[in-house]
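Deliverable D2.4 — example input (structure tokens):
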């Protein structure tokens, strides 16, 4: 996962904006996929952040499957926003990094501290890490 700094984001062409988290959700109502959402409101704009599939299951399901990285994803969002509880995210302020009008928000940051979370690089790294782990397990099985 890439750990950006404010300076680096600006050098890469990102515009940094303040946003208020006005709603949070953690739901498995999206076709049996567990997803998290933050509604972000800025000065004259609003967007949703999240939507990653963190697990599978539905009400009454016999089986629930969680993403190995889903909990860490949620915890990193809470950490960058400075809260210890998912419900406490509502009404908190964060910064977002965007390159142009209409871009999806993928990078959020702490309002005061120079701490950022890039969901894309987080999941790219976890896919690579999981693939390498699977290769190691196959090597061990082949001995």
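Example output (designed residues):
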């Amino acid at each position: 996962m890439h750990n950006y700094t404010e300076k680096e984001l600006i050098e890469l062409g990102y515009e940094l904006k303040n946003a208020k988290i006005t709603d949070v959700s953690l739901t498995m109502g999206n076709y049996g996929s567990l997803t998290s959402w933050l509604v972000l409101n800025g000065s004259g704009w609003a967007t949703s952040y999240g939507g990653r599939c963190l697990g599978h299951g539905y009400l009454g399901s016999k089986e629930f499957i969680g993403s190995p990285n889903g909990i860490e994803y949620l915890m990193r969002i809470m950490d960058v926003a400075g809260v210890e509880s998912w419900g406490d995210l509502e009404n908190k302020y964060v910064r977002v990094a965007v390159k142009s009008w209409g871009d999806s928000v993928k990078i959020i940051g702490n309002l005061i501290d120079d701490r950022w979370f890039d969901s894309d690089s987080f999941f790219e790294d976890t896919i690579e890490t999981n693939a390498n782990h699977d290769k190691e397990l196959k090597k061990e099985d082949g001995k």
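The radius of gyration is 17 Å.
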